[in-house]
Amino acid sequence: MLSEIGGLSVTSQKSVLLIIGGGIAAYKCLELIRLLSKAGIKTRAILTKAAEQFVTPLSVAALIGEKVYTDLFSLTDEAEMGHIQLSRSTDLVVVAPATADLMAKMASGLATDLATTALLATDKPVMIAPAMNVRMWGHPATQRNLAQLKKDGVKVIGPDEGDMACGEYGPGRLSEPDAIAAKIIDFLKGTGNKPLTGKKMLVTAGPTHEPIDPVRYIANRSSGKQGYAIAEALAALGADVTLISGPTQLDVPGGVKRIDVESASDMLAATTLALPVDGAIFAAAVADWRVANSSDQKVKKKDGALPDLTLAENPDILATVSQLKSGRPELVVGFAAETQNIIENGSSKLVRKGCDWIVANDVSPDTGTFGGDRNSVHLITNDGVDSWPSQSKAEVSSQLAKQISEYFQGR
Ligand code: C5P
Predict the structure, then answer these.
(1) Is the CB of 335 under 6 A from ligand 1?
(2) In this structure, are 235 and 372 located in the same domain?
(3) pTM over cut 0.85
(4) Annotated catalytic residue: which of 81, 166, 312, 351?
(5) Catalytic residue flag (residue 29)
(6) Which residue, of 170, 191, 212, is where some domain finishes?
(7) How far apart (Å, rounded) are the C-alpha atoms in residues 49 and 68?
(8) Which residues 6+ apart lie within 8 Å of 34 measured at CB?
């Protein structure tokens, strides 16, 4: 069965575990459940003790058409469906309203009641819709917890800005039920088609920092956006993605495992450890050189004398992996960031490095590619060159992920 809501549709098999937190906005969950059910999505619900002060288990149960769960130590509930199974027999876990307290517990990995235990035990994607007083939302502790949750791959909806039940104004209002439902439906729609399920993918992204001494380093302007978007696009197609990232300001895409590194040597070590994989995409802007005589102590400024830095060539991670005699990934994709003769330089890089595909792009300053949000690329393979139109980095990533999945399906 296919149901429609706000122009979106989703098949009836999908299910959501809704964890209702204890905030005044909890009443909006009743409308959310109604919208999800209208879209053919099955909802199971857990109410925290505080949530029961705002909505009754009976109202929620009446709307979802089955019992709701409230107690970690209920022998009857555990006998019917244990909390582990409850947290995993779903496509998505949604916390709404996510109170400051629930967010703090999630960020610290506490499991003090059924809701937090289910959140810690789940292996499914988690979405939260925060709602709280504006000062609680702006508090450094909440913002710290939010950053941690995003780093853990939790997706965040809202909060909205506006009048609050407590009489104040600002960000902290629960997003409207139709907006939350739309995000859930959007997400669930994407979970149907997963051609890369079971495939292990490795993506390198971002710049590397090559230390001069403990406080200084050589770096480049890579933002990591393209590599992160590729990791996200591959995960959206069901791949098991390890993202090996140099220093960036970006959040970990949902469902992606990130390993943070600093230098090219660290990146090579982390890459080697992450093997074997089915496919590897090398989108990192690895520094070509490192400081061979980097110092363990801060180099002191001496009158007029310049530091005596000796550069050494960094290991080429792409070439190393491409030329592995055993354990080479089936598909190795490199990037060629060029400012001139893009296709020619990209093609010779394909041969020189020994990889299977090269994504060549123009990074001349006037294109705004480096650090920007758009990219214009050519996919170079042994079969020829496919030039893609200028599009967002997310669109480039989706097209590349699709091409990768077609490659694996064709094998
Ligand atoms: O040689 P160049 O830096 O232009 O090659 C770019 C490609 O090689 C990118 O895919 C980049 O991630 C990869 N690379 C690497 N290790 C290096 C240098 C580049 O993996 N040391």
Answers:
(1) yes
(2) yes
(3) no
(4) 166
(5) no
(6) 191
(7) 12
(8) 63
